[in-house]
């Protein structure tokens, strides 16, 4: 996708946790490894939270840990992560605010945007590492969220109520920090005279269980994990419009190519969401599938089937009436369950 946009005349920029060669564990100290091959014009690629510490504790393998080593902060950061045994570790990081990873990514985004050409179109991917475990917020972020009240997780008594609440406070602090960076980027776009003609999309690669169903993290079929947010604003997009059509974050690739008037990739399953975003039509998708390991899940929007997870052969949920997936209705609606299960087992041939 990046290469197609570059071929269409875009100045393509990226920073943060791009995750395009995760297993290599070597991002280059300047974060530019494989930049040209991937289709970027400028790039500052850094490791995610755990990968940065695991790969760069003694010697950095990515630009973020390289910065911490230069500032003699690396061992403080590594030691802090070692003390965080689980989600209950909600104490602040010893890092100053400007050395916190998401703030480092945000600063890189501002630098790239400042260098973006004004005489040609540009694209920028800003991949923050948060919100993500561990719950390491800075001392500067903490005061804004302490005292906030949240409903506790569903089906989890692992920690006391106060600990569960602190975990959720830290998570929202991470989200709030990203909101702040989005505001700074929008302000810079406004100062450049580009805000009203720039498409801005906020999304994520996965959700977070936060203790619901007795689980933490991701990689499970529950909606808290597989459901990802997607908010878009820009020219032609209807303000306040809520779209409930089946969609996947994979569709962002075709959407960006569509807006960029770039050639589509024929092998992509991605489908442009532009018509839905602009209120001109509905998705061609009838359903969305997901899976990992032995489990598979599929939804048409209202009903969602989970198969091959745990001891249950299959489970069916009505996301409209039961958004937190508390009541398995597969025995009561075997016809719906059978129909959805066929969508998992049979992959329709690609058309067009």
Written account of the structure:
Helices cover 32% and strands 14% of the residues. It contains eleven helices and nine strands. A hairpin with a 3-residue loop joins strand 7 (295-299) and strand 8. Helix 6 (101-115) packs parallel to helix 7 (161-191). The protein starts with a helix and ends in a 7-residue tail after the last helix.
Question: Quaternary status of these chains?
Answer: single chain
Question: Helical percent range?
Answer: 25-40%
Identify the CATH class of the largest domain.
Answer: Alpha Beta
Low-confidence stretches: 347-352
What about the largest sheet? 4 strands, antiparallel
Sum up the overall morphology in one term. Answer: globular
Q: How many individual helices?
A: 11
The fraction of residues assigned to DSSP E strands is 5-15%
For the biggest β-sheet, the strand order reads 6-7-8-9
- Output the structural class: alpha/beta
Corresponding CATH superfamily of the largest domain: Alkaline Phosphatase, subunit A
Rg estimate, integer Å? 21 Å
Q: Examine the secondary-structure arrangement and name the CATH architecture of the largest domain.
A: 3-Layer(aba) Sandwich
Number of domains: 2
Mean pLDDT: 94
Topology, please?
Elements: H1 2-7, E1 11-16, H2 35-38, E2 42-45, H3 49-56, H4 63-70, H5 74-83, H6 101-115, E3 122-127, H7 161-191, E4 200-203, H8 223-226, E5 230-233, H9 251-259, H10 274-277, E6 288-292, E7 295-299, E8 303-309, E9 312-318, H11 334-345
Parallel strand pairs: 1-2, 1-3
Antiparallel strand pairs: 4-5, 6-7, 7-8, 8-9
Helix pairs in contact: 6-7
